[in-house]
Design a protein that fits this description.
The protein has 72 residues and is of the alpha+beta class. It is built from 1 helix and 2 strands; from the N terminus they run ββα. A hairpin with a 2-residue loop joins strand 1 and strand 2.
Length: 72
Amino acid sequence: MRCRFFKSFDDKGGEIDFVNHIDTEIELFLFGGEKYTEPYVAHVPYVMNTTVEIREAHNDYMSGKYGKVKHS
């Protein structure tokens, strides 16, 4: 099973506990910084400011704008 989530937390500080309740390894990407005040939309694997930008990035990717990988 492959699950992907995007979660933001408040700026009050404190602790965050992550517990893996399954028998397989998980990957976790955690980052922090100043409060982000611009709007954002997350749709894996993209995080942009609007759904229009998400569609544009996806279309660019599908059209090969970011390059192509040769499969052997």
